[in-house]
Write a sequence for this structure.
């Protein structure tokens, strides 16, 4: 059985989320060596909220992003359903 | 613990069916300066480094696993539909004999990954300098791989990975600066 | 050739079997920063992702070496 192809919107949502996640990651490494930069902390908080909103939207459309109860699963177990990141 | 996230850090698009490139990319999967070596090096060193820089080693070490998955994606996409004959033409016959279409942790020359690629000296300055060197060596490796392909889409992902090495190297150098100050700073909670 | 590149020459012997190839190495921008200053200019999120860094001052462009291996 082949997994059906993901809709076009999947890539758009994913790309937006990747951008938001990237800013948070980049600021994390920066804050690891600049822990007292208040401006960066404020920016991190702002982007962390945006990232959360985008993750929720993505998960509502395409299923959980994170395992072990770190994402809502809804009424169906779709975690083990593909496609996986290296397949799309 | 770690939590898996069902997405890549950066989009990986492979536009040319060129399994030969998989043989070169595997260097960054299971090679001395590859992403596996990087992740394991940093995440192991963090147990004995001063508290101030544990967060950095943890975060960069974790990011390296995301990079490992990107490299795996490239290799997977380049080899999953290749016939044994195509793999042979790509110089991957020896790989195919032992591993079929599976990925494996070895370098471009076929040497299996070994812990001797990485070091933990228990000396914070020595360990961080090893990490800085590892990042610059990985950057150079990405440049070499970029020079060996004309697939602009795979080049795009490789350029992202190359730039990450540059940022990581700077953060490790900042960590050295932080440790230089360590003794003079008062711990206040 | 962008300003990151440092060209250099090596001795060319009259007995060298191959024509000389121009040589150069790259010095990425991280080499000119000891400790990143606060409040450096940033890329917008999509641009940051595309370039692999949030900060233009850390961005190092890289283009594949042209066929023949020479950068001009």
């Amino acid at each position: 059985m082949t997994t059906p192809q993901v809709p076009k919107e999947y890539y758009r949502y994913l790309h937006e989320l990747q951008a938001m996640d990237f800013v948070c990651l980049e600021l994390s490494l920066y804050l690891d060596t600049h822990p007292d930069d208040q401006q960066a902390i404020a920016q991190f908080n702002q982007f962390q909220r945006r990232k959360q909103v985008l993750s929720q939207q993505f998960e509502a459309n395409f299923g959980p992003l994170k395992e072990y109860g770190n994402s809502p699963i809804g009424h169906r177990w779709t975690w083990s359903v593909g496609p996986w990141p290296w397949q799309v | 613990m770690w939590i898996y996230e069902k997405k890549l850090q950066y989009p990986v698009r492979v536009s040319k069916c060129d399994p030969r490139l998989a043989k070169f990319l595997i260097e960054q999967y299971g090679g001395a300066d590859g992403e596996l070596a990087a992740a394991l090096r940093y995440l192991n060193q963090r147990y004995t480094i001063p508290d101030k820089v544990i967060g950095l080693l943890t975060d960069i070490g974790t990011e390296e696993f995301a990079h490992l998955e990107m490299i795996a994606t490239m290799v997977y996409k380049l080899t999953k539909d290749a016939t044994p004959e195509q793999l042979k033409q790509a110089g991957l016959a020896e790989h195919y004999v032992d591993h079929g279409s599976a990925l494996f942790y070895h370098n471009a020359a076929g040497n299996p990954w070994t812990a001797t690629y990485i070091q933990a000296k228990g000396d914070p300055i020595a360990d961080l300098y090893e990490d800085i060197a590892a990042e610059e060596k990985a950057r150079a490796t990405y440049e070499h791989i970029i020079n060996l392909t004309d697939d602009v889409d795979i080049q795009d992902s490789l350029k992202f990975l190359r730039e990450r090495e540059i940022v990581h190297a700077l953060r490790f150098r900042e960590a050295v600066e932080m440790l230089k100050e360590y003794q003079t700073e008062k711990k206040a909670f | 050739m962008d300003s990151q590149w440092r060209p250099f020459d090596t001795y060319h012997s009259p007995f060298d079997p191959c024509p000389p190839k121009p040589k150069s190495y790259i010095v990425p921008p991280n080499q000119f920063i000891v400790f990143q200053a606060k409040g450096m200019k940033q890329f917008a999120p999509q641009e940051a992702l595309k370039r692999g860094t949030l900060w233009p001052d850390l961005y190092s462009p890289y283009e594949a070496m042209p066929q023949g291996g020479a950068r001009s």
